[in-house]
Design brief:
124 residues; 2 helices; signal; Peptidase
Length: 124
């Protein structure tokens, strides 16, 4: 299952980044993708303006393993990049922290990234 999550994330799906305990966040569920991964945004982590937005996003599988990724969205370029990636077990303990390559990628139609982008700026 861990490999499935990693493949989904590496394929350009939203990654999520966290700070401290997962329980301390104010999560808003965006939806569940075709792989059964539930995507949520930590409302307390959102920092945005007309140019960019930075927030923590969580992707959780049915077993409770989840990534929390801090992502930065670029409004004008319609791109997203991962700033921090952490994998947690179902009890909320850190399994590992990954070093993202921090390269930007386009926000593709039909992806969780697009759903988040539209939540941030609407159809703009």
């Amino acid at each position: 299952m861990k490999k499935t999550l990693a493949a989904v994330l590496a394929a350009g799906a939203l990654l999520i980044g966290g700070i401290g305990s997962v329980d301390a966040a104010n999560w808003y569920t965006v939806g569940t993708d075709s792989n059964g991964i539930t995507w949520s945004i930590d409302n307390d982590s959102v920092k945005k303006d007309d140019k960019k937005a930075v927030m923590d996003i969580k992707a959780m599988d049915y077993e409770g393993y989840h990534y929390i990724v801090t992502e930065e969205f670029n409004h004008k370029k319609q791109e997203v990049k991962d700033l921090k990636v952490t994998l947690y077990d179902p009890q909320g303990y850190v399994v590992k922290e990954e070093q993202p390559n921090k390269n930007s990628r386009k926000v593709e139609p039909g992806t969780p990234a697009q759903a988040v982008f539209q939540l941030i700026w609407g159809g703009k």
